Amino acid sequence: MLDAIGVASIDDLFTDVPEAARLDGLIDLPTKQGELQVERALSAMASRNIAASQAPFFVGAGAYKHHIPSTVDHLIQRSEFLTAYTPYQPEISQGTLQTLFEFQTQVALLTGMDVANASMYDGSTACAEAVMMAARVTRRNKAVMAGSVHPHYVEASQTLAKYSDVSISVTDAAPADLDAVIAEIDDTTACVVIQTPDIFGRLHDLREVSRIAHEKGALVIAVFTEAVSLGLVEAPGNMGADIAVGEGQSIGVGLNFGGPYVGLFACKNDRRFIRQMPGRLAGETIDADGRRGYVLTLSTREQHIRRDKATSNICTNAGLCSLAWTIHMTLLGEKGLTTLARLNHETACELADALGSIPGVEVVNDSFFNEFTLLLPKNADQVVNELAHVGVLGGVPASRLYPGRFENYLIVAATETNTPEDIAVFAKALAGVL
Amino acid sequence: MGMNTQGRPTRMAGNIAPDNLATGGYADTISGSRGLDQAEALIFERGAMDRCGVDLPEPKGLKTRLGGQERKGEIGLPGLAEPETMRHYVRLSRKNYAIDLGLYPLGSCTMKHNPRLNEKVARMPGFADVHPLQPASTVQGAYQLMGELSHWLMTLTNMPAVALSPKAGAHGEFCGMMAIRARLDADGESNRRRVLVPESAHGTNPATAVQCGFTVDEIPADKTGRVDMEAFKAKLGDDVAGIMLTNPNTCGLFERDIREIADLIHEAGGYFYCDGANFNAIVGRVRPGDLGVDAMHINLHKTFSTPHGGGGPGSGPTVLSEALAPYAPVPYVVENGKGGWELVEHMDDAEGDPFGRMAAFHGQMGMFTRALTYMMSHGSDGLKQVAEDAVLNANYIQARLSHVMTAAFEGTCMHEALFDDRFLKDTGVTTLDFAKAMIDEGYHPMTMYFPLVVHGAMLIEPTETESMSGLDRFIDVLEALATAAKEGDTDRFLAAPVHAPTKRLDETRAARQPVLRWTAPTDTVEAAE
């Protein structure tokens, strides 16, 4: 090969590298190892973690433990899906493109919206992008976020807006009802951002805030972190929201210690909206023989065409996770999703009854889906650590998300994966550490 | 139309099923399928609301506590049974090209083989089934993995800090440019808002710069395909925040003057952001920290072989220099001095002055496990060979094709070979046509029309995981196609592809009359008429 190229050695191909930066030997890192050795080393690391399936598990706050049908993981490992890239050549990418079109449709149906994109990185970045999109659509620069939106979502939005002309005001997290948000809406407001179920698990009716926001010319962004909830609770699009964004992880995507997940992004069918959407869109068309097919479309919004005028810098998105999501949703269908959602809610009701009957423990929520907040008689962070020592993963202390606040509040989630025995063990352990 | 051994026509006469076209099938068979090329309608056309492929127990019928927020009305999501689901997606998968099917020379995307050990490790319950907000005592292995990955990335780049949380390359660019902006603001340099970006840059670079409140000033390329140094120097000034430079650049060339560029931008008071999309060409052989880089993202899905998954997920850890390290985003892991690890996840707990949080939780753990598996498998020696073989393969392609295709620039290249469309002049064949003809030959086309500085660009990145015999077959095909184009065999190109699952798709129609989701056909009176 070197002869064909006309050089004497590999080194001759690196002569453009400045001499000072050419390394003589190897970088100081371990040398190659076989599969067995690597697997052994990483297995040892994995065994230092307690997996959700190994303990009674009630941790939520933005990521949820659900059962994923075996079919999902098998299908996403098909080489044709796993080792393909962005469908830039549609004639040999119809598999990816049609699944994206199906994904977009399912997301739109689930959220009660008209259009959805082909995914964002995760719920938090989808939320941040929605705030920026609302500012572009309304040509206003003030965003109001409810304090009960997941604090990581608020922080991700603040980061994206940090050096733009968009300012974000966040209402107080407690009591954080929608009145505080409504009070902030004025003629300069681009959008209000409300999460339901919120970080404490409470459900919100968006109709009133939507009516007031729309009167003032502001958009309503609805956020959700638990997609399964939409099988049982009203869709944001049916309550007046203009944009719905959320985390899709709980359908088809595992916990994965926080990522990769799949951001869902949907909006109403308004030309102004679609032109300002971030991310990829798959669209239907026909081929030269008149057969239906799919392509990536409206890419004049995107960075590879519009460069410094793009609606977002996003390129790679959550591809394979959106495939997992759409496969799981197809397996569930309407019947499966509504049943799954009801099972989650019923398990949470039983958990609330079991924990709420412990002396000194109060369930804070008036309403919830599969997650709620407890007020404990002692520091929740300490409680969580003590529970971990007895083998129970008992939720997220609210102070972990709101440093220095809500120190006795514990956010707990229940899903279809929790058995009556799990609940009994948790209740006994919690009573024991209080 | 042919005849079979019984002397009967093998094709149905006439358009038996023109409706097939509307659901993506062929018109010349009854079913819309052609043998193994099976037509597959949308799930909305196949599924049913009461069909379900998951076994779930019956709910008990408890009274709800939804505060009156119960959904009213149907969602409209059809389901499929498990075997139907399996067929639907397997059939669709067969309409995709993939690395596992053949050479995927998409320049700038580093489509290399994805070892399956990475998949196995990522699925270990101790990594895949762990929640990001579990107590620290229950996730020490996960923190350790993040620490180990950080060590590998910092050592390979000779940089003192790394932020793991960016979720893709563009998100990593955002991380690096935010750190630069934060540093400038901390130093009171509020006038520095202009970022220099070569014309050949990825579109993400200018989009990112604007997202951080900067303006973009483009630098032209010189005739060797590298930064035009005179133009670059002329653009330096006290309003310059920095430069975003891809190295090796998008023309597949190492920026020879990179040290001087770094020195000049630093002397001018700016910072050097390096787009690490092409790190695969130099990993193990050159450390960006030795080139004067202040920030660089690393696409784990390129250099470290986490699968591209049809467009993601990616992961874009970003290494930072001493000057920028204090501004790194939260969260990050640190050793706690007691043999364990802890996570710093709040701004107030950080030692420096983080510019913020980029996303929920701690980053793309599923990509971290795969990338570390890949790094440990290859080691410092194997990674060096990765770069060498990637560069060798690209040069082999460039050398062997230069007599029939036109290399955009003289001299050897790094990990990708860039051709322009001069060899197609007066043939009536465009870069697009040429690419589509490659599809008929069983190959995924190269990156087309990028970088923008080259007319009709064809950017070929074979990666290190192609054998010489595989490259020879690919080269033979491209050579024959180039010859065919020059000899006037234009029909082969203009009609292409004819052997793909679809013919050319009408992208203009898709954009002019956007259909972005399925909607139920409305009942019309046409049927009755």
Primary descriptors:
heterodimer; A: 434 residues; alpha/beta; Aspartate Aminotransferase, domain 1; Aspartate Aminotransferase, domain 2; 38% helix; globular; B: Aspartate Aminotransferase, domain 2; seven-stranded mixed sheet; four-stranded antiparallel sheet
Write down how many β-strands of chain B occur, each being a DSSP E stretch of 2 or more residues: 13
Distance between the termini of chain A: 72 Å
Biggest β-sheet: strands ordered side by side in the sheet of chain A: 1-7-6-5-4-2-3
Assembly type? heterodimer
Q: SSE order of chain B in H/E notation?
A: HHHHHHEHEHEHEHEEEEEHEEHEEHHH
> What is the CATH class of the largest domain in chain A?
Alpha Beta
Main β-sheet of chain B, in a few words? Answer: 7 strands, mixed
Strand content of chain A: 5-15%
Task: Give the fraction of residues assigned to helices of chain B.
Answer: 25-40%
CATH superfamily of the domain at 118-374 in chain B: Type I PLP-dependent aspartate aminotransferase-like (Major domain)
Low-confidence stretches of chain B: 7-15, 524-529
- Return the domain count of chain A: 2
Give average pLDDT of chain B, whole number. Answer: 94
Taking Cα atoms only, what radius of gyration of chain A do you get, to the nearest Å?
Answer: 24 Å
The structural class of chain B is: alpha/beta
Average pLDDT number of chain A? 97
CATH class of the domain at 118-374 in chain B: Alpha Beta
Q: What's the number of helices of chain B?
A: 15
List segments of chain A where confidence is low: pLDDT < 50 over at least 5 consecutive residues.
none
